[in-house]
Amino acid sequence: MKIIEYLFLWQNLGLTLFCIITIVQVFYYLFFFTRLAFYKAKPKNIFQTHPVSVIISSRDEAGNLARNLPGILVQKYTTTHEVIVVNDNSLDESKYILEEYQKIFRQLQLVELKQEAKFIPGKKFPLSVGIKTAKHEIVLLTDADCVPASEFWIEKMQEGFNEGTEIVLGYGAFHKKNGLFNKLVRWETFHTALQYLSYARAGLAYMGVGRNLSYKKTVFFRHKGFSSHNHVAGGDDDLFINKAATKENTAIMIHKDAFTLSEPPKTWEQWIKQKNRHYTTGKYYRGLHKFLLGLYAFSHFLFYPFFVVALFVNWKVALIIFGVRFVLQGIILFHTTNKLDEKDLFPWYWALDAWMFFYYLLFSTALFKKPGKTWK
Questions:
Q1: What is the share, in percent, of the chain residues with pLDDT greater than 70?
Q2: SS3 assignment, position 237
Q3: How does strand 146-148 pair with strand 260-262?
């Protein structure tokens, strides 16, 4: 008799926990993600363009520079701007490619680094050199493997700066290609953007992506650049934003002309290495950010296992609870995939969301790894 009572107790506990997990998930969708789903930029009465310095840190990226740099150099931006490429100790043909482009495009500035910065791993030192070299107050960062989605990338990104704005977060997408692996990679990138852009709209900006990020030199120098995390190879984008962003000084720019596009990882090994490198910086986030991100990921991870448990307890109640989240999630993801130009992912959101259970398992070990010494 006691065994039956214990079994009944554990079954009810499983259903109760599934309810709690779903409530947590619904809270994130309603409180955070709706802010991106239904976001509309305020119309501007006065259109003012600002001088902009585009900065790219590059190491042994000759192929990417040859392919992608022209997309930045031919931007239709009539106001003063410059493109600074910091060639960080490259051993390939990068210097010669850049010198050839420099003959054609007067706005291209080349900074050659021929010595490594001791005790500063990653690309923080070359980026710092680029920012200090920049002539203009607004700097716009991207990577050598990125190409603007349009000829109006600079124009649209600088439109994000209003009175009091010091940081503008953009979206760095991956090129759309055939195959399941491409969808998985792009879904994770979209899912990350869904979070950091929504949090920024809620006044809790915690990261940006170096593929598409803009801020003012004053905020960079006010926070002494990357000095507080110079010992970490990564984090030139997310850790700096985590420290410098406030509710008042941060905006987002999600116009499709303001996106950048990168080549996606081609193999599982390449992707795992890339994501492991990125996730090692999360431990340095502010406490509130770590709590909110951790609670969301934990509830997301537990949702499907406890859904299966709940089905065995009371399948009708379990399906109703699941359905509430499913419909709410569908409405919000429909709008956000449209806003971030990832519409082809929406029909598969039910499967891609379930895949996240395995994603969390795959990358959970990164939270306990020490950051690597290099950024490549």
A1: 93
A2: coil
A3: antiparallel
Contacts of 321 (CB under 8 A, 6+ apart): 18, 19, 22, 310
Regarding whether 212 and 141 lie in a shared domain, the answer is yes
Report pLDDT for 11: 65
pLDDT digits (tens, 9 = 90+) for 172-184: 999 999 999 999 9
Residue 10: inside a domain: yes
Of 262, 285, 308, the residue at which a domain comes to its end is: 285
- Answer whether residue 63 shows pLDDT above 80: yes
| Tens digits of residue pLDDT in 70-95 | 999 999 998 999 999 999 999 999 99
- 318 belongs to a structural domain: yes
Domain boundary among 285, 303, 330: 285
Rounded Cα gap, residues 82 and 106, in angstroms: 8
Q: In this structure, is the dihedral angle defined by the CA atoms of residues 89, 94, 96 and 97, taken in order, positive or negative?
A: negative
- Given a contact cutoff of 8 angstroms between Cβ atoms, the answer to whether 255 and 168 are in contact is no
Q: How many CB atoms lie within 10 A of CB 374?
A: 11
**Mean pLDDT in the chain?**
91
Q: Which amino acid is at 344?
A: D
Predicted TM-score (pTM) of the model is 0.92
Q: What is the CATH number of the domain that holds 263?
A: 3.90.550.10
Phi/psi for 245 (5° steps) reads -75, 140
* Structure letter (DSSP) for residue 32: I
**Crossing angle, helix 62-73 and helix 94-104, to 10 degrees?**
20
pLDDT tens digits along 239-262: 999 999 999 999 999 999 999 999
Contact, 189 vs 174, CB < 8 A? yes
Distance between CA 53 and CA 58 in Å, rounded?
16
User: Is 374 contained in some domain?
Assistant: no
Q: Does 297 lie in the same domain as 280?
A: no
266-301 confidence digits (pLDDT tens)? 898 888 888 877 777 888 899 999 999 999 999 999
Range of the domain at 126: 52-285
